[in-house]
Model the fold of this input.
Amino acid sequence: MKTLSILGSTGSIGSQTLDVISRNRNDFTLKYLTTNSRIDILEKQIQTYSPISVAIANEKAYKEFCQSTTFKGTILCGDEGIIQAASDNNDIVMSSLVGFSGVFPTLAAIRAGSTIALANKETLVSAGEIIMKEAHIHNTSLLAVDSEHSAILQSIVGENIEDIEKIILTASGGPFRTMDKNLFSTIKPENALKHPNWTMGAKITIDSATLMNKGFEVIEAHWLFSMPAEKIDVIIHPQSIIHSMVQFNDGSIKAQLGTPDMRIPIAYALYFPRHGHFDFPRLDFTMLKNLTFEQPNTDTFPCLRFAYDCLKRGGTAPAILNAANEIAVDYFLRHACSFTDIFRCIETALNHIQIIDNPSLNDISDADKEARLFANSLLKTV
Done:
């Protein structure tokens, strides 16, 4: 039986991870559940899944929880509490925190020697070089929970990395794939939150609508699989049946297929290198009418282009990209800026903030803070 802690258990990936382990309760001991402030959901999860301990990042929510709960286990508080949970001798840490907040807890879990099931792609986007170096030093495995990177991993197990010609990441194209970009200014959060295929959290769903999520996945693939940008392609596949592909030097291609269900890559990360026994819906090929593919339009969806540019530029550019995007998405979700303001905010931040080469973790943290301040000041004038 392995010990598991879930950072961000009250979010979409965290909740689906709990669903996965509930189907094989004897395979894992649940050490920590953590949340920022969603203590109502945390309380329900405690009653259902019986963790040993919990951690709550928001101090006000922590105090409220302590006053109302009957939970007898350890209750940690603040960012320090999340980091302590991440570093407390876990076999596996599911890192499903949102945004840059995942960097330091993930780093703590790596240094503690835990296997990382990484659902927080912003960690590798912002600090990929440092994270991968630390994982190498501590002999720690990073297993991406994205369906695309899980598909790549499943396609290259047993292969020689030198035999890979390129990686092909698939993207659904989001809900606005066929919309005239002149109408983008009319898009509201409630429209953007209706992903055609996947059930995800609010932030990543908006990122999928702008194709920023796919841009992040390009950067993530670079670090996870040691692939240069020119060997990572993106193709639009609206049906989300083929989750990604690997093309080899002889022209052969391996693809991983399945229903669009995040529990499948979650389970693969938890049971790697094996496939666990689960009754998730099976793909019925006789019901597939067609599988279609098209090139992404980076004029209509410039976030994908921004990501490629930042990967090639390096330094703190990806951290600036991520921070500006986080702020812009937050404004959009609060109806405080338009959908197209997301693109404008990111591009303006990248053009105005100095990029530091060979950054330390402090440099990356400073770049993150500067980009957030810049994006806030820019969007407050909208």
Remarks:
- The two ends are 53 Å apart (CA to CA).
- The chain has a mean pLDDT of 96.
- Residues 361-379 form the longest helix (19 residues).
- Residues 149-313 form one domain.
